[in-house]
Write a structure and sequence with these properties.
homodimer, 293 residues, Chorismate lyase, 3 domains, 26% helix, DNA-binding, Tscrpt_reg_HTH_GntR (chains A, B), transcription (chains A, B)
Chain lengths: 293, 293
DNA sequence: GAGTGGTCTAGACCACCCG
DNA sequence: GGGTGGTCTAGACCACTCG
């Protein structure tokens, strides 16, 4: 057994045979802990199939490998949303790398909102149960006054077979079981959003109208705690359309009123699509806010 | 004179009187270069008015101060868009800090798209004259086919006095001189965007219809090279509206066709607003693409 | 006071680019 | 071959939190 438990490929540090710990590369924790010669941790250990040339064809920095390992633990549920993950020092020990390397890995995870750092306390798994997170995916804000979360009224919740277009966007087969949800959202009692959602039936088995109704707060929070599926990012396409009869009735507006149409695909770990959402937004007293940078 | 040229406040490194370079904090470059005692660089030097307590009330990391200094040089035009800035090692020497600190400052500038790093070559000031940058502020992409840049036809270019609403959004006084531009943009010959722009007259003095017409490529490129004003970020508000007579005629569509309305304020260094842009987008064959993360 | 993340330094080596 | 950014390490100290 070498390099204890993990199969990391260290593409850095000397490629010139066994080196004494004092010269060249400094002694790695692995070397001191398991008294393994430095050379054994070097130049391709495992994981990636790399012909032992001077430059690895598939170069991946150590911190990226650490990042992938941490992401795996997040995905597997070893550390659940809202929980504290091990400290940087502890992770460094576990992975046999320096704290700085772990730090860089966590830096990127924090930048991607997978994790949240709090000085003096530790690093926490991000969760949708938070004021901060509520408006990450809801960009419709009132023209005047402070943003707040709308109330939901569910129109329909049923199990259906995925239409071809839905299946294509969600990486399913046409006819696969999906859960269909239709709801209207109200800001201060004014109906403003009519929304249709499709979710993979396999993952969201057991999602019923009752559970949706009794649950207060963002749906992504419910998905996260009840179904272990966390939305990481989303891709949205926006258009202007005219209200059809259905939308007009639900939003209590005239037929033909211009509405903002949004089609969103949300992804969980591994860029796996797990939600398709089609919304119509009434933008007479609200607008879609976007920051370009 | 101490700490040579710059007024950096080092809030780190020992607060316990003069320390020999070998113990405690390692000798700083400043100390070795100007043979200044370490203590002189510590506990409040200048810049920030800090009562000499144990913890500075206005704590600012060194790398943030470096970042601010680099940003100043960008803003002042010391390093122009597209140019190479000094290497990390050189900047470290200039500011009397370690390369790691400069590195962290530049990391943030790169994340904000103010500069671009290229391994083996150096760090470059970002520019709007680049394929990469072209679609950072243009989010309207075709439903099918690859995104490409539209052609412009200018309808109107004139000097006017800023209306109250425009002045408010641009941080001007009502009645201040502004340049008003109206244009239509075509994708593959199809009129798709009608846009009105307001620019501060003071900054964009000398901007004429001729210069706009003869200039090929994104307007932000022209603004950057001809007027020394670089757009850094923008804030956009999006709505759905109906085409009025003017828009319908210019876009060759029926009156009442739903259009996407965008109001955008763009900012340059120091979060100073320097452009107001109001656009109407025809979204029958294009959509506004947005990534949520 | 102990533990956590945050800053700063110094030095080594690697990947990449260009003359 | 020399210069640039990119990675990795090690160690010191600071700011913050909590018991």
């Amino acid at each position: 057994m070498n390099s204890a438990s993990s199969n990391l490929t260290n593409n850095a540090t000397a490629a010139s045979g066994a080196v004494s710990p004092t010269a060249g590369a400094p002694a790695t924790p692995a070397a001191t802990a398991a008294s393994t010669p430095v050379a054994s941790v070097n130049t391709t250990t495992a994981a990636v199939s790399a012909p032992a040339a001077t430059a690895s064809p598939t170069f991946s920095p150590l911190y990226q490998q650490i990042k992938a390992l941490i992401t795996q633990s997040l995905q597997s549920g070893e550390w659940k949303p809202g929980e504290l993950i091990p400290s940087e020092v502890e992770l460094a020990g576990r992975f046999k790398v320096s704290q700085g390397t772990v730090r860089k890995a966590i830096d990127e995870l924090a930048a991607e909102n997978l994790v949240m750092r709090r000085q003096g306390k530790g690093t926490f798994v991000s969760t949708h149960h938070e004021a901060r997170a509520h408006f990450r995916f809801l960009r419709l804000v009132p023209d005047e006054g402070v943003p707040h979360y709308p109330e939901s009224k569910f129109i329909e919740v049923k199990r259906v077979r995925a239409p071809a277009d839905v299946a294509r966007l969600m990486d399913l087969k046409s006819g696969d079981a999906v859960i269909f949800i239709k709801r209207v959202q109200y800001f201060d009692g004014v109906p403003t959003i009519v929304e249709e959602l499709w979710l993979p039936g396999l993952i969201f088995k057991g999602l019923t109208a009752e559970r949706l109704v009794e649950y207060k707060g963002p749906m992504y929070g419910l998905f996260e705690t009840e179904f272990g599926t966390r939305m990481i990012r989303a891709s949205e396409q926006i258009r202007a359309v005219c209200a059809d009869a259905g939308a007009a009735q639900l939003l209590n507006i005239d037929l033909g009123t211009p509405l903002l149409s949004s089609e969103r695909v949300s992804f969980t770990y591994g860029d796996k699509p797990v939600e398709l959402r089609r919304g119509l937004y009434l933008t007479s007293r609200h607008h879609y806010q976007n920051e370009l940078s």
